[in-house]
Amino acid sequence: xxxxxxxxxxxxxxxxxxxxxxxxxxxxxxxxxxxxxxxxxxxxxxxxxxxxxxxxxxxxxxxxxxxxxxxxxxxxxxxxxxxxxxxxxxxxxxxxxxxxxxxxxxxxxxxxxxxxxxxxxxxxxxxxxxxxxxxxxxxxxxxxxxxxxxxxxxxxxxxxxxxxxxxxxxxxxxxxxxxxxxxxxxxxxxxxxxxxxxxxxxxxx
Length: 205
Hints:
alpha/beta
């Protein structure tokens, strides 16, 4: 699933939304069984919310929330082997299949993430349908955290760019990242896997 940055005018792809809604219709029934829904919105309302991009949170914003001790519940919905290899700080591993059975504090902002967005979107749909009002999705998941916080590459040309770079650099260094200035890295899963291996060897996580 392709997700875009949660800025004005940017949205999740329509195809991705339709795919997510189709998947969720197939997974919600066996996950919930005969249990009645809480006061969660309907699937059509959730699909519109997802298409707007409002559920997305970028990695720098999430990092600032963690640093500033915002009441959060960060849920890594990957399997336990991936979680042990690398995870976002303070995250709890709750694989997607276990979301229904785990106690989750709905008064906190819930941020879900995975490797590529599919399981996180399904988890968001499930939790919102069950009535959790503050669920969010980490934009680009693990790769978003690595690129945005641990290895950010930003220009420092215009005053706005320099201001943004200083904000990102400060947060990155807080989490042990290595911010640099230069051309953006290509967005690839291979680069993400290499970064995870390097960070694991550094003993950061």
